[in-house]
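Co-fold these.
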Amino acid sequence: MVSRGEHLVLGLETSCDETAAGVVADGTRMLSNIVATQEDLHAHFGGVVPEVASRRHTELVTICVERALSEAAAEFGELALIAVTHGPGLIGSLLVGVSAAKAYSLAWDLPLVGVNHLEAHVCANFLDTGSAQEAPAACEFPAVCLVASGGHSEIVLIRDLGDYELLGSTRDDAAGEAFDKVARLLGLGFPGGPALDRAAREGHPGDLSFPIARFPNSLDFSFSGPKTAVARLLEAEPDKHSVADVAAAFERSVADVLVANTVAGAQNTGARQVLLAGGVAANTYLRQAARAACEELGIPVHVPPPGLCTDNAAMVAAAGFFQWQRRGPDGLDLDTFSVLPLAERHESGE
Ligand code: KG4
Ligand code: ZN
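Predicted complex below.
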């Protein structure tokens, strides 16, 4: 039910291979979240094919918007704002969402904001789905957020929404990319991250581990070494370990470093809470490890429900609302960006 006086935001997300639309009231109350995944379409190729993705977005975007409005029981006349991801992502895919958002903005006479996809992932933490078990994070800052997806792995200090500092990041592969590549080596198919997660649940890594490079006086990490170590192990001793055990060992190696560096970032900065965000935050082991580490140190921690960690548009609507409040709408000349950093490093501590 839409309440009088609430600002309803329609969010659109088409940065990669999910076409999504969602409606959120006042940046936090989620009224609908429609995600049309293209997984089956790309599985055949073993990865996302940009041209195939953009074509599919054009077919699905208006259908998703109609369903998002209908599920929210909202008319377009009740909307206050349209928010759309304008980067980072695949340019052809972003263009579909941004063009659709501009068309809706003109046709429905609504302001428009372009949202950074990574900031949207952060804002998934503040979404209230109405479920008693899944309470949202409090808007308490400073906070430290691990943003780990298919293209990014960053530890970000949030002084306030819109005020970010990069504390650490991958020096090569993103965590999701590493999971996807190792899943492929293990014959687990596409999309690799969720398949590796499922396989790992049956595994017992024991002493098997894949050391991860860390850097002195830095919260950076690197995942290309352990990925190569898995490939070498499979070549040298293909039958020594089960797929489940290798998956569990790799997942543990990656997640433990992400958690250790995120918690260190929180301790160094006196953060009031730790947040997790991005598709990789749907990982079962990572969620448990982050909760356990933070609870041990008495740092409040929040992890969005798995469906809000992976790409969706409710998070875009949430981020769009806060950005609109901070700096007003964008113009119809809103551009798209394949690279769009969320946060800069203040000082390289090395
Ligand atoms: O945020 P996201 O949905 O899209 C991007 O912005 O990239 O993240 C997708 C990434 C993929 O690499 C996918 O394999 C990974 O997140 N992922 C997972 C899990 N679910 C998605 N990785 C590990 N465990 C999962 N359960
Ligand atoms: Zn994403």
